[in-house]
Amino acid sequence: MVASTDPQVNGRREEIEKSRREYEKSVVQQYDTDTKRKFYSAVMGDGTDNIHFGKWEGVDVEKEGAYGEASARMTDWMWKRAMSISQKKAGGGKVQYIDLGSGTGAAARLICKDFPDVSCTCLNLCENQNAENMAANTKEGVDERVEVCKGSYMELPSEWDSRFDGCFSQDAFVHAFSKYSAFTEALRVTKDGGWLVFSDLMKGEASGVSEEELESFGQTNMVADWLTPTEVCKTLTEAGWSEVCFEDLTLDIKCSFQLMLKKVNRLLSDPQACKGIDLDLLETYRNNLAKRVGQVDRGVFKWGCISARKPYNTDEGKKRADLATAHNITRKFGMDELVWNHMSSRLQDGGFLITPGGLLFDEITPHDLHKSSTNITADIIHAAVYDARPDVNVVIHLHTPASVAVSCLDEGFVPLAQEAAPFYNKVAVHEWEGLSDDLDEKPRLMEAVKGDSRVLLMRHHGFCTLAKTVAEAWVLAYYFDKSCRTQLEVMKASGGKLRRPPASVMEKASQQIYLPEFAPGVCEWEALKRLAARGQKELCR
């Protein structure tokens, strides 16, 4: 976008930026002075550095340290939600995320200590909190995986474009000067298909609550952009996020307020316990907390968790959808092998999408597909094809019984009928070397698929179809498996004698089959997508 040359527009922008920076200084004052840090540690810390609102299910509120336990449970609950969205699961490859408004970094430490393949960038306005964060990271041994940066989530560095697998924020967006700007910045630094998960305090939607009361609550808590959950979700969608979902956890925050009020009363009744804490601040907070417990029931505000996904680019989104369809219909046609076998599609920006593993094929959704596989066999086979064949964009590798049986015959595959025409002189062969778990096999796989083969028959193993699109690759796989079944039936019926069609006829048929209106996938794919969609509707019911 070209910057405006209109002095009035530029002047207005500068005025807004000045207001934002002044507002953020006030936010720092609310959290980062010695007085406020001691106060929050005493009232919400509960012996830990996690001062967030908690998830109370299963927590004994009378137990010492209950507030800290509930705060940690909320972090864990949010992380599980993030991983349910993520295309890169913790434990299945490196995950790099950013915590927007990270405070003292308690959430990042909790997550990174549990998952060694996760790294976090903590972004926070407050210098003292950041120093505390870095010291705690060193003490806990996660300093190499938790980076701490001073800054505002309203203005993220340009070099962070599409850097992170996801964005996490626990009770911090409430202080966003502009929710829309904060959400667009988060979108910018997130990779395509990445996630956003945050908990936050929001304006209530109940009838009978006055605008004055809502505004008063917002002003008391340093809220510049006070929105309802519905408005927040709408703003996220307008900022470019998809699959936006809000889960109402307001009853949990009521429990947090009740326990905080109990702790404040205990502190005020024990001068020794509240030594070093501003008594006027405690008294003010006690009065506010007493109001808040009742305000929860009256609907003055809401608290909950919102999740969203950054849409994939057009190329990747289509390939994810087509690969998910291909997996689904492979299972419908009985061509799958439990959680094994793999399908992949090359991406425009490098690398390829591939079957995740561990899921039955009709469980796989577009978001489940990985950009890297935890199965070395899959990576070796698919990477070898893509490295050797720049014309190939999709590889489907299956172990159907008929294709494995044909791969074990001395003469291998023989095209006998019309359905086999696409494979006439287009089947490459690779000798079995045992499980494909050795990179040393890759050069021989590359050599085998050189040329213009459409199928790689892997002896005593299975086959791969090689194509430009998912539709073409899957339809080729269907007809190759069918042709193998036909060959085996003919051999069974004839005692092994095969009547081959004339070479000239098969050659002509192999060309006709690739006329634009008849090429594999052109006529069949939309119908197959409808078949897969019907299955998804049945699962939903």
From TrEMBL:
Residue stretches spanning the membrane: none
Domain spans labelled Class II aldolase/adducin N-terminal: 321-488
InterPro entries: Aldolase-II_Adducin_sf (IPR051017), Aldolase_II/adducin_N (IPR001303), Aldolase_II/adducin_N_sf (IPR036409), Methyltransf_11 (IPR013216), SAM-dependent_MTases_sf (IPR029063)
Residues covered by region (Disordered): 1-21
GO cellular component: cytoskeleton
Basic and acidic residues bias locations: 11-21
Single GO MF annotation: actin filament binding
Domain of life: Eukaryota
Protein name: Class II aldolase/adducin N-terminal domain-containing protein
Organism from which the protein derives: Chromera velia CCMP2878
